[in-house]
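Predict the structure of Acetoacetate decarboxylase.
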Amino acid sequence: MPGPVEPPQGYTLPFSPGGRAALVDHPPWHFASDVIQVVLRVDAGEVARLLPPPLEPGPEPDRITVRVTEVISVSDGDPDLAYRQPEATQYGEAIITVPCRYGQETGVYLPYIWTDHDWSLLRGWLNGWPKKIGQIRMT
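Done. Here is the predicted structure for Acetoacetate decarboxylase.
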């Protein structure tokens, strides 16, 4: 007579015995990156259109930043993955940031993030980031 069947496991789909098929591993996640950042002066009216209410343009309403990053990330659940399977821990992102204000508080809003791996996309969505798939190259 067979023993008990282990239920599928994982932080995200697809679930599997032991949880190894999950697209995204359990948090917390740790990150390191190389970044190129460019500050641009653009039409303030176009920048304001990127901000959802109740956010308002920040102190420099004609400024945005564009960042291109090469990222390595691992979770506490599998910190050695970067050595065993580096392609499962390395990805690129391109990020647009818009300085903004909410009342008297200043900050930045990220209207767009592109990433080049599906697991980075899903992990971003789990955290509320506006990620889309794209081709990212830093040269």
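The mean pLDDT is 95.
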